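User: Hey, quick favor. My workstation is busy. Could you predict this chain's structure for me?
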Amino acid sequence: MNEVYTLIALELLPILKGKTVKISMGIAKMFIRGLLQYKRAGNIDDFLKDISRLSKTALEMKELVLIFDDLDRLPGTVSITEFVGFVNSLVEHDNNKVIVIADQDSITDQKNYLAVKEKTIGTTVEFTAAFDNSFDQIILEKYKKAGFEPYYKYLQELKPMIQELFYAAASTNLRTLIYFLQTFDKIFHDVFYELGLDKNSPDELNFFKLQEIARFAVSVCIEFKSGSISYTNTQGIDEVAAINAQLTQDFLRKAFSDNMRRLNDPSASKVEKEDEKSYKDEFVNKFYNNKTYHFYPSIYRFVTGGDDFDKEELLADLKEKIDDRRQKIYRQDELLNALGYPHCYDLGNEELRKLTAEMYEFALQGLFSLDRYLSVFHFLERFPEILGYDPKEVTEKLKAAVREHAGNFFYVPMLKEHFGVKPDQRNYEYFRDLFQVLNEVNEQVSNAIGRKNDTDLFTAFSQDPDSFYKAVHEQYSDRPILANWDFDAFYIRFQEMTNNQLRGFSTFLKNRYLVYELPLWTEREFFELLSKKVNEKREGEPTLRDIIQEGLSEIVDQILQKPVITN
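Assistant: No problem, here it is.
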């Protein structure tokens, strides 16, 4: 434990700088032992052998109180038995007063700790932090009295949510709370004016955005300080970015048939055995129960110590993920989540009726996306003994609502693939009729926005190819976007592309038309023209660009060999 003596010596140094301070032999030995260890200067006895007389007024060892904090974080190189033995020697041989602070439940070597505690630790005082009062006191001292009134004000408003998240994590760790407050201070002040937080009554949506980023920051702080995640190890929570906790696109494409199976399979009940949840599932369920989850890379990197905070990236994220229309459907997402499986089995009859009626009202206003109406209908037609909805009447009302509010909807790629109801399913004919109307309206939306979107996509391709690839992948996976492009305008931009941009375009075509086997429809003419251009013979010594274009030519030829799908 020589390192401990070094630390004690360094702590004593400011005290001993006082010229009037006199020390006893015990303190001298401890101090010099620490310095020798620090300087690697030799044996303590060689330095103390000439010390023979000390003042009666010298500072004695018994007047010192040594405090060891965070015993639960004892490094692996020191055993709990060795440390407690060291403390015992300080008490019995050097007459020190010693206080050890620890979260006893977090000490890993409980067996040895309990064995030596009884013999060595004289008095134990249990301290439980009063999180509520501590929160108020911390923000009062650190922010209000320091003049940071706006931050203090919003922390008071965010307090219920912050408490909720700490309690969800079974934590009252004040160090973690302080870490969050210090970290979020930077984020808050960087977005203060952009979110209009300087106004007496900020826009409701902007305050919602503040709550959104605060929830994510608190959650990441708690998990980061507990050691569960790090800058380089996200544990997969970035893989569920910008999607609802349970209503993901993958979920929507398969969950309907799963819901049918669970409802009608006698073995699928409230006691149904659930698969072991992954860390990312646990994270979302713990901190975003019945709420929509978004991953914010700029906040994650900053909180986990990887990068400085990037305000512009966060603002762009907020604009993309929480615009006005998305805010309107947040409650709808929460309802579908609460009414989904297995959560619905925990609802009482009145709560089930209330949430279902609220969902129905939103649906009749056209406030769900088209790919969610089948789930809405299922949640209305199930449990007839409790809910009592007439499936025929519900179907007709939903069909009328979807047609009436067609202007509300965005185009849903591959909506036709969302139908997973089997013919022997109860109320199959109503599911089928509703699904037919959903596809009709989806096609209308597609036709209305198709040509404009294709033009906008060409503009994106011309200005920022990477943003174009991302938009196509996320929103236009089954549209023949190239069919409406002006090929001459495209080829001018094509010739201006750098070699790396050309490689990126080749990869895009390969992934979209070869790897995922998407249909061509009327894009064939575009590829025929492109094939002629990239296969033109070029004179002179081959260049790297020539080699890249040869690879592109092979991809285009393979695309042209595929059968043409016209509808």
